[in-house]
Amino acid sequence: xxxxxxxxxxxxxxxxxxxxxxxxxxxxxxxxxxxxxxxxxxxxxxxxxxxxxxxxxxxxxxxxxxxxxxxxxxxxxxxxxxxxxxxxxxxxxxx
Length: 95
Description:
By secondary structure, this protein is of the alpha+beta class. Helices cover about 25% and strands about 50% of the residues. A hairpin with a 2-residue loop joins strand 2 (about 35-50) and strand 3. It starts with a strand and ends with a strand. The mean pLDDT is about 95.
């Protein structure tokens, strides 16, 4: 099992309920493909370095998880089509 970190930038216009639902959906995706969520770090609204879809802010969320090498590949496939996700990045954590 490898350790990964997922950074997700959500649309800042999301309501609390929709944001919680989007977070739960991402965690469910990780668990669906054999991963285990270890830690969730919510940074809240931050200013973006550049405009994305005419937005200047985003809601940052970091998820640390463990999983098989296929887990991040499958999660990325599903995150590509999520409407509320502006950007995402999965990196492997070296121990």
